[in-house]
Amino acid sequence: MNSKFDNLTMPSNPPQLKLGEHSREKNATFEAHDPSMFKDPITHKYYSYSTDAKVTSKHTIGIQIRRSEDLVNWEYIGLALSDKAIKQGRDNGPKFKATEGFWAPFVEYVDGEYRMYYSATKAFGSSESRIWLAVSDNPEGKFENRGVVMDTWDTDDTYPNAIDPHVVNTPDGEKYFIYGSFFGGIYIKPLDVKTGLPLNSDVKELGKCIARKSELTLDGPEGPAIIYNPDTQYYYLFISYGWLGDNYDIRVGRSKNPCGPYLDFNGKNMVGETMGLKLANSYQFTAKNPNADLNCKKWSWGGFRGPGHGVPFYDEDTKDYYFVHHIRDGAESLCMIHPFTKVKTFTHHNLFIRKMSFIDAWPVFSPECYAGEDNLPVDKKYLEGDWEVIKLDDNDNEPKFPKKMTIGKDTPELDGIKGSYSYLNDILTLSFDKFNIKAKVFKCWDFENSKPTICFSGISDAGIAYWGKLIY
After folding, report:
1. CB 313 within 8 A of CB 321
2. Which of 54, 216, 262, 425 could potentially form a cystine with 270 if both were Cys, beta carbons 3.0 to 4.6 Å apart?
């Protein structure tokens, strides 16, 4: 059956994510939290910057940097900020303890300089925070602070929190700054294109709210990021909801205007009416051979937990879209009950990169981690066989487990329900009695079973995302 995938180009050493390898030096994707992604237009190397998080390593302060030439093989190369910038960013004045670490960086290249936005909060769980802009002439630093971009010190919890920065650029050459986490919601404000600082120089000016939870929803929103797609002419706002446990997820809304309103699949506003279209949450495909190249005696497969706090990423060279986020290893040996929230929490987090595509102007994620697959079309005959299908129920944040689907020459059958299907230009349309699914077909490296396969990712006409993977 492997001959079915003769036109699937894979790297000579496909990534295994190395979930059982808990060393940054041996497994560079380990301990990446709140990651961003950036491709240096000068060297054409990829860089991921992330929070000062650690699990087994020594705690370091200064924003972690990881580097890759192919988005597949990564190396951890150290810290981004200079000693001077670290000291300045940590300083909360004589009355308060120094900030213990920096969060959620975002980097872009503008007119010969690299700009890093990063968060410094008063304390974990506080809504009093600052977002700094630091600059460098090298993507590997050292970055020096230029100034504060947003400041929510001396505000109460009804205000937004100045953390989780992101920047979106419009086709007209404007820049907008997105930030916020929990509390007052997600906000956007214009930036000065030349300096990267606030357009009106007021670091206390909040901007406009573009997402806020209702009273009855999960924790959040947080980790906002916006990207513009010139093909669809929409701006897409990605956010995460939930605590850092099983109920953490990734959602999206879209707008024709960078400042909103951002609406979900059913036209509801992300300010108080909806959490957005869910694109990912905890899940567990069947696994027979994960981590095939590791000898993990104390590790056992438990699925992936809490995907979240990610950013969309467009590769100008390859013309491909990706989404990078952190994800947690679901092995039971790595689970704890959080001392404050009492929520079941998985402690070991890793960098995770997915191919992203668009169907009817809505984004969908590949169900598997990117492994260097090509973009050659998949022939219809390859679809035939047994599939595992995961339904990402909008109102159910428990871990998702697969149902069985069989595709024959004429008829698909999902969980005992027969239907029909069509396939054209890598778009699979599944039609059943009460719903239809329109999905993008991806070539994938099947991490759970350590071999190539094909997957689909789509959205039903009710606005529910589905993932599928061919099992053989």
Report:
1. yes
2. 262
